[in-house]
Amino acid sequence: MRLPLAGLSRRRVGLLAGLLLITLPVFALDAPKVKFATTAGEFVVELYPDKAPKTVENFLQYVKDKHYDGTLFHRVIDNFMVQGGGFDGSYAQKKTRPPVAHEGREALAKGGSRNVVGTLAMARTNDPNSATAQFFINVKDNDFLDPTLIPPGDPVPRFEYQGRTYVNTPRANLLNAPQLYGYTVFGKVISGMDTIDKIKATPTGAGGPFPSDVPKIPIFINSAILVK
Predict the structure, then answer these.
(1) Quick one: which H or E segment has residue 122?
(2) Mean pLDDT taken over the chain
(3) Correct CATH for 31-147+182-226 of 3.20.20.150, 2.30.280.20, 3.40.50.800, 2.40.100.10
């Protein structure tokens, strides 16, 4: 039953206000976590629904659907990243839902993380809006994978990219340039980074349809479960 403020003493109102100030930040920091059990060990990732809501929702639905169970880390490149979530033990690509809209710039503009060591990002084709289920974990700081924020203005008075300066460029040209989208970071490894280090150090070669970068001893995701 809701009590009108008039029925509460000033002391109780002040106490309630203080409790709200204490508890609200806790709720804001409460982020979903997913635990991965692999043949190389376990790791836990924390997700950023406040930065990339559609991407996180998409990823969690695949977790709930058990899509990742039994899939491989099929692309492992030491000093770059480890990638998985798309192929089963026979290197057959698993069926996915339609792609999720790219949220890289929006996440970065909200104070989200860049592609630094331990962060979780969506894999995709050359089409920025093609990400489905595959993900990768950065094992070094990969700033060249970061989305590029476009300065204000239309045309944009001045824009610098890879050592070149562009003047009075139509905004749409920059917003739609595929090379400026980068990759959406939507979480990070908060425990079990030693497992990721073990995966990145595994010997690789050809496997299935891939000519290189496939672990010679397959590394499976046995399960991925929401733990919070």
Answers:
(1) strand 119-122
(2) 90
(3) 2.40.100.10
